[in-house]
Amino acid sequence: MATMKLQNINKVYPSGVQAVFDFNIDIKDGEFIVLVGPSGCGKSTTLRMIAGLEEISSGDLILDDKRVNDLAPKDRDISMVFQNYALYAHMTVYHNMAFSLVLRKEHSDVIHERVMWAADILGLTPYLNRKPANLSGGQRQRVAVGRSIVRNPKVFLFDEPLSNLDAKLRGVMRKELKLLHTRLGSTMIYVTHDQIEALTLADRIVVMSQGYVQQIGTPTEIYTNPANLFVANFIGTPPMNIFETKLSEAFELTIGDTLVEIKDKNIQSKLKSYLGKEIVIGIRPEHVLIDNDDQKRIGVRSIVTNYELLGASALVHFMIAKQRVIAKVDERVLFEKNDPIVFNLNLEHTYFFDKETGKRIYIEGEV
Fold first, then answer.
1. Which residues form the ABC transporter domain (predicted)?
2. What is the 3-state secondary structure (H, E, C) of 191-207?
3. What structural domains and CATH numbers belong to the chain?
């Protein structure tokens, strides 16, 4: 187990392209950190710099209070699990897991003890004499993890380890990795483009875009208090509904053909400097207020364009001023295509963003 600090880490390639800008984080001993973002955002490059597979252009990588920028990968006591498993096809599961210890010239009794310990944790004991070709995708991934944990490194790195698995197996492996972290108590850094993995696995999430860290926080903080429009739109399934509108001098927002008045004095005080300006508002699907159009007279009228039953919940799709909107409702609330509905903005759960910068205008709990 270990602590780690990334201080003003930058990565600039010889071509002049900068992949990572001023990355800063303090990682606690035993913490599970997930780097998440779209392809090309710099998350895997950051992981490879931590592993020593990429040179750090500037900044300091501190492992247990020691600067390790210039240490070779083998000397950092860090283990990495790759997306493609990287198993030796001619070796059995046992020898794949033992190989790194053999290279370190550990005693055979120590090697056997460590391999059997890891196999027991990962449920691989019945497969130790098989070769990778005779294993399922999930079993191969567990072997790759097992090869990593037998070394008992200070830090585990995971580079999109579940992306080659089908959806059901990914769900199973997420649970297994979370249980493994709980059992080992090790420091783990995990890279993924899948925000569901980030929300379910992480102690803290680092959201990245175009080489920059957008926000660092717990899954709850990231989901309920996104720092900017990118985080708000990237985290959450289905994504947040986004509207561009104008805040009038009378604290009114135009949604479709309807004016929505902001009466809350606290919200008014936060938005005062945006009077007369265009802003962006967001509302998550579970907070969208819709009703059948039989009795309701106040609100924005629309019609259902699609209804998706998810089991315990359902998604209702409709349009507001050429903007697609998704509402997440209880599965007992039944809608059909072309049903008339009325939409109202729930200001208690509405997010306000600066249109120019994309930054959150205010965050709940801030003074």
1. 4-235
2. EECCHHHHHHHCCEEEE
3. 4-234 (3.40.50.300), 241-354 (2.40.50.140)
